[in-house]
Amino acid sequence: EALRAAAAPSAPAWQRHWERAVEALGLPVLRLPSGAGHDAMKLHAILPQAMLFVRGQNAGISHNPLESTTNNDIQLAVDAFAG
Fold this sequence. Notes:
- This protein has helices spanning 12-24, 39-43, 71-82.
- The chain is mostly helical.
- The chain is built from 3 helices and no strands.
């Protein structure tokens, strides 16, 4: 059985927060289109949401056992979040 659901829109103000946090680390801001799902599909109805994507290894494969990232990239995400 398939589930059809609309993507969760990101809140522009929260997107700007992430962009400023990434810029503060001296990193380029890359805007990625995303049909956000998972928790965002429900949460955006009651609170704003936006996502920070972390660079992936293995050609960026996601939601798969081959999904991987580096410790350095995880640390950058933590630093952006802390900012």
